[in-house]
Each structure stands twice: as C-alpha cells, then as structure tokens.
Amino acid sequence: MAEPYYITTAISYPNGRPHIGHAYEAIAADVIARHRKAEGFDVRFQTGTDEHGLKMAQKARELGTTPADLATEMSGYFKDMCDALNIDYDVFIRTTEPRHHAATQELWRRMEASGDLYLDRYEGWYSVRDEAYYDESELVAGEGGEKLSPQGTPVEWTVEESWFFRLSRYQEPLLELYRTSEFIRPESRHNEVMRFVEGGLRDLSVSRTSFDWGVPVPGSDGHVMYVWVDALTNYLTGLGFPEEGGDVAKWWPADLHLIGKDIVRFHTVYWPAFLMSAGLPLPKQVFGHGFLLNRGQKESKSLGNVTDPLALAEQFGVDTLRYFLLREVAFGQDGSYSPEAIVTRANAELANSFGNLAQRTLSMIFKNMGGELRAGHELTDADVALGDAVALGVAGLRRAFLDLDFSDGLEVWMRAVFACNQYVDEQAPWTLRKTDPARMEAVLMTLLRCVRSLAIAVRPVVPQAIDTLLDQMGVAPDARDYGASSDSTWLDGLVQKGFRIAQPVGVFPRLDLPEVSEAVNA
Ligand code: ME8
C-alpha cells in the first residue's frame, strides 16, 4: 500500500485579497504534493483561510461589514487563486466552520485536562497586525521613537483577564525535539528557534475577553480563544479530529507544515507544545520558506507595488510563473521577482532549451519519418552517454525535490536538457536524413525517449504544459509518474500500437519583454 504523505500550507488571513506571497506558498506546496504523488505516495494536501481574530474584526469594522461576510468574500478569492494557479488541494478549510470549532474546543479540553491551562490577568504589548504579544525586550523603536514589534508593526499596552497555557513547562521537551529530529528546516530557522527557546519560555496568554470574534472557550463565558490556538488546530480539523480513527489515524502526524519565515515560532514552539499537552503526536517537519520581494522590496500599499498574482499568471502563463518561482528562489531564502527576470528565465530555459528540444524532436519525427516511430535501433556510444546524462539529471531532480531543494533540482535537470540540445547539434539529424536515414531514426528515437524522461521529471512544476506535450507523444495519462515504464518499453508499446506523431504544437512560447512589462505596469 502506498505510504501516506500529509502536507499543509499556512491558512491565510482573508482580510484582503491574496498576494504574491500566498501564491508562492501555494505553488511550492502544490509542487511538493504533485512530486510526492509522482514518487508513489498517497498524498493529502490541505490549505485554507484563518478567519478569526482581532485583525479580521478590525478590518471588517473599517470596511463597514461583518467579519463573517468579509471572511466569506475573501476566502472565495483564495479558492479562486488556487484554481487559477492549478493548485490541486484535497481540503480547503475555513476556521469559521462548525467542525473546526468542535475540534479546537476538544484540543482545549485536553490541554485543560493535562493541567496546562489556568486563569490570570494579562498585561503586555500586543500587536494586532501580528496577533501576538511581545516582551518589552523584544520591541524596537520606530522612526518617531514609537514602540514597534520585532516585525515592525505597532503595539499597544493591553490588560485583560486571560487563560494561560503553561508553555514554560515545555522548554526541555521542545529543545529535545529540536536536537533529536529534523523538526525545523531550514537550518537557519532551526538555529533561531533553538536560541529563542534556550532563552526560556513564558506562559502564553491563550484567551481574549476584549472581543468575541473567535472560538468560545468551553465553560468560560466571555472568553474566546487566542486566534493562534484555533488557527494551528486547522491541521487536525481537516482530518475529522476529534474522531480518532479514519483520516486522523491514516494521516496524522502531518509530514510537512509548509509556512513562511514570519510564523515559524508559532509552528515550532506553540504548536508542538499544545500537541504534547493534548497527548497527540507531533508533525514530522515544519519548513519556513523565505519571503518573496518585488524587485528586492517588500510589497506594500504605500509603495504602490502590490502585485496581483493572478495578473502575473495571466501575463506570463501559470506554468511559467510556477517554474520561475521554484527555479529562481533558493527554497528557504528570500527571493525577488520582476517581469524582466521572469521573461529572461522563461525564455532561456523553458522556451529556448526544453521547449525547443521537444519541438525540434517531434517536428523532425513528423517531417522526416512521417510521424512514424521505430524501435530496436543499434545505439552508439553517444546515444548511450546521452541516456545516462538524462537519467542522472532526472535522478538528481528527484533527489533534490525530496529534500525540498527545488532550484538545485531544476538546475540539474536543465543541465540534462543542455546535453540533449548539444547532442542534436552534434548529431545533426537533418543532414543524416540523406546520408544515413537509419542513423537519423536512431538519433530521433533517442531524443524522443530523453524528452519523455525529462518531461515526466518536471511535470510537478509545469503540469499543464507537460500534459499537453505528453499527449502529443502518446504517453498515457496514467503513465506519467516516476514509476511508469522505462523509456524503451514505452517506445516498443507505441510502435506496436502504430502510434504516430502529428504536427507538434509548441508548449513553451517565447515571451516578449516590452509588451509584457508594459501590460503589467499598466
Ligand atoms: O500568517 N512571501 O496568514 P497570512 C512569501 N493566518 N510568503 C509570504 C509573504 C511573502 N511576501 N507574505 C506572507 C498568517 N507570506 C496566519 C497563518 S497558520 C496556522 C496561520 C506567507 O495570510 C506567510 O509566511 O499573513 C504565511 O505562511 C502565509 O503566507 C499566510 O500569511
């Protein structure tokens, strides 16, 4: 039976429309999910929206609407984004769903039963934007000398009666977890969190009385849960928790929580502590990816540089955007994008290298062999060497992707594409047509097999284009995973069936920079 693999993204605040950071995270998670499927895992992929908390309540007031209506409208845009970017999730969770309230209240009761919750008074610096309390020592000074959170957001002195979670109890178990597993990745985030926890943990305020837009605390009138308690629980809600069997038994603990670097502390300190308290297994890994910057700058309304990810996808193509983001950004680090960088990368690698290889190969088979395929050619050293180079590139991509190292994986893959293009130039099948037609066929069939391997390898990143290409090559829809038959078995099968290559249609068009960038800036 296939091994289960459960991956989640953060659930986004639907207090506005999705931005490029949301698109980046969704795309990366989708590539991981598709890659694991291609590797033969039984995959479950969950995403959604985080609809409670002061931030939502304040935004709704500002817009003259209710938090529930705001959440419903904006959550729809997040779903639309997933559809538009080809994000193949299994579960989209909204934290306002009744099942989520039930799951969160059950987690609360379990933490209470462990003696980890107590009622007290809270005084501290609260940032609504971050939905987090900060220590005086963590604050930084703003330009006018005002106090700001370490993320640079405004803080207010807040006093309220609150339930507390005994986070201080979990310092040692957490350090033990970090030391003995690969719980936090990448390494830089692991080190940050180690240092933070080594510095000591204070108990955490986990309820609010100043507003009511949240999950009610069981048996404590007037208290709603701190939004992060409820938000983190979404990963269990989607599996049907508190039911014990079924999906919880099959999928929990999660294999990977993919999140951005700004919320690593919530996922690697609070979340495992809550789970330990409730007696539940811990997720296997939390990966904190970097931030995406627009020409090196953070997007913000005041700078006027906020980009709609769907407009980018429309301008450049969904597959192009997906490829660019994973190829350009070293996963885990911050990255930058611009129309020029997208076009340059897409043209150099997708259009001129892989697209051109596939197009040249199919069109020479169509023109020079009437589209007919043949098997059983005698192979030269050059043919065998090319097959080896491609096999190495594919294996390199798969290994790197398992390690979430997408840019390196794609680079190794691209080297194999270059090897194929060099082989075409050296073998010059267009001249062999007259001098040695049998050799020309061997060259074209070698290339066709290589194109198939390279296409299947990169399919998780650019699924639409690759499926269109594989359709033209007669690769059956259920034979597009890494475990599918070998290239030679596949070719024999096509020859037996009498499959013919038709006039090919290119799948990676060349992009034109001036037009594209004018359109984006318009
Ligand atoms: O943090 N580049 O929601 P959110 C890359 N509701 N990633 C970015 C980014 C950028 N410029 N900006 C944000 C929340 N992100 C909580 C999560 S999970 C139980 C609750 C990432 O809408 C961010 O790091 O502010 C997070 O992983 C995700 O987008 C949603 O951010």
From TrEMBL:
<dbReference type="GO" id="GO:0005524">
    <property type="term" value="F:ATP binding"/>
</dbReference>
<dbReference type="InterPro" id="IPR001412">
    <property type="entry name" value="aa-tRNA-synth_I_CS"/>
</dbReference>
<dbReference type="InterPro" id="IPR014729">
    <property type="entry name" value="Rossmann-like_a/b/a_fold"/>
</dbReference>
<feature type="domain" description="Methionyl/Leucyl tRNA synthetase">
    <location>
        <begin position="5"/>
        <end position="362"/>
    </location>
</feature>
<feature type="short sequence motif" description="'HIGH' region">
    <location>
        <begin position="12"/>
        <end position="22"/>
    </location>
</feature>
<keyword id="KW-0030">Aminoacyl-tRNA synthetase</keyword>
<dbReference type="InterPro" id="IPR014758">
    <property type="entry name" value="Met-tRNA_synth"/>
</dbReference>
<comment type="similarity">
    <text>Belongs to the class-I aminoacyl-tRNA synthetase family. MetG type 2B subfamily.</text>
</comment>
<dbReference type="Pfam" id="PF09334">
    <property type="entry name" value="tRNA-synt_1g"/>
</dbReference>
<keyword id="KW-0436">Ligase</keyword>
<protein>
    <recommendedName>
        <fullName>Methionine--tRNA ligase</fullName>
        <ecNumber>6.1.1.10</ecNumber>
    </recommendedName>
</protein>
<keyword id="KW-0547">Nucleotide-binding</keyword>
<dbReference type="InterPro" id="IPR015413">
    <property type="entry name" value="Methionyl/Leucyl_tRNA_Synth"/>
</dbReference>
<keyword id="KW-0648">Protein biosynthesis</keyword>
<dbReference type="InterPro" id="IPR033911">
    <property type="entry name" value="MetRS_core"/>
</dbReference>
<comment type="function">
    <text>Is required not only for elongation of protein synthesis but also for the initiation of all mRNA translation through initiator tRNA(fMet) aminoacylation.</text>
</comment>
<feature type="domain" description="Methionyl-tRNA synthetase anticodon-binding">
    <location>
        <begin position="380"/>
        <end position="508"/>
    </location>
</feature>
<comment type="subunit">
    <text>Monomer.</text>
</comment>
<keyword id="KW-0067">ATP-binding</keyword>
<keyword id="KW-0963">Cytoplasm</keyword>
<dbReference type="InterPro" id="IPR023457">
    <property type="entry name" value="Met-tRNA_synth_2"/>
</dbReference>
<dbReference type="GO" id="GO:0006431">
    <property type="term" value="P:methionyl-tRNA aminoacylation"/>
</dbReference>
<dbReference type="InterPro" id="IPR009080">
    <property type="entry name" value="tRNAsynth_Ia_anticodon-bd"/>
</dbReference>
<dbReference type="Pfam" id="PF19303">
    <property type="entry name" value="Anticodon_3"/>
</dbReference>
<dbReference type="InterPro" id="IPR041872">
    <property type="entry name" value="Anticodon_Met"/>
</dbReference>
<dbReference type="GO" id="GO:0004825">
    <property type="term" value="F:methionine-tRNA ligase activity"/>
</dbReference>
<dbReference type="GO" id="GO:0005737">
    <property type="term" value="C:cytoplasm"/>
</dbReference>
